[in-house]
TrEMBL record:
Pfam family, one: Tma16
PANTHER family given in the database record: TRANSLATION MACHINERY-ASSOCIATED PROTEIN 16
Coiled coil ranges: none
GO cellular component, one term: nucleus
InterPro entries given in the database record: Tma16 (IPR021346), Tma16_sf (IPR038356)
Organism: Immersiella caudata
Highest taxon of the lineage: Eukaryota
Name of the protein in question: Translation machinery-associated protein 16
Similarity comment: family membership: Belongs to the TMA16 family.
Length: 179
């Protein structure tokens, strides 16, 4: 990804005749190398946080892609999509019940239980306000989902919709905007 350190090292080695090991600790070139290394680390940290932020949406798309594959890459009816959204929203319910049962009476909720409750509540709220997914009722999107290989950039080719809890379908844009 970030190649600043490699480029800087190559430039300094070219200038010094290949001997980059003999740099003084406080020389300009040593400072350039240090600055390039810090920049590369910072960019990698930013990229990692971005990947972590994008992961839930990628998981959601892959989940609904499997549903379309099960339907032989044909578009789904709106009622089927709504039922699959409901299944997706409540996918953690069994695990939450299991965690609740394993807790001794009178003990506070575990961190895992709290996390599952928050996930379920957030998904239920999104389901009511408008669940953000690729348009699974479109033939074009079904074919594009089949070709998707997991890259974030490819998702901009898909048509996106928000399906409200009342059944209303609104077109949406990619990437999703924070409301």
């Amino acid at each position: 990804m970030a190649k600043t350190l490699e480029k800087t090292r190559k430039q300094i080695a070219k200038k010094k005749g290949g001997a980059i090991d003999a740099l003084h600790a406080n020389s300009r070139n040593a400072k350039r190398l240090h600055k390039a290394q810090v920049r590369d680390e910072r960019l990698e940290k930013i990229a990692e946080s971005r990947r972590k932020q994008d992961k839930p949406l990628l998981q959601r798309v892959s989940h609904f892609r499997e549903i379309v594959r099960e339907n032989e890459n044909k578009p789904l009816d709106l009622e089927v999509v709504r039922s699959k959204i409901n299944e997706y929203v409540h996918q953690h319910d069994e695990e939450l019940e299991e965690v609740k049962k394993s807790r001794r009476p009178g003990r506070p909720a575990s961190a895992r239980e709290d996390l599952l409750k928050m996930k379920i509540a957030a998904l239920e709220k999104e389901q009511q306000d408008g669940f953000y997914i690729p348009d699974l009722t479109s033939e074009k999107n079904a074919q594009l989902l089949e070709r998707w290989e997991g890259e974030w950039a490819f998702l901009s080719n898909l048509d996106w919709v928000k399906i409200m809890g009342s059944g209303i379908v609104k077109p949406a844009k990619f990437p999703p905007q924070a409301n």
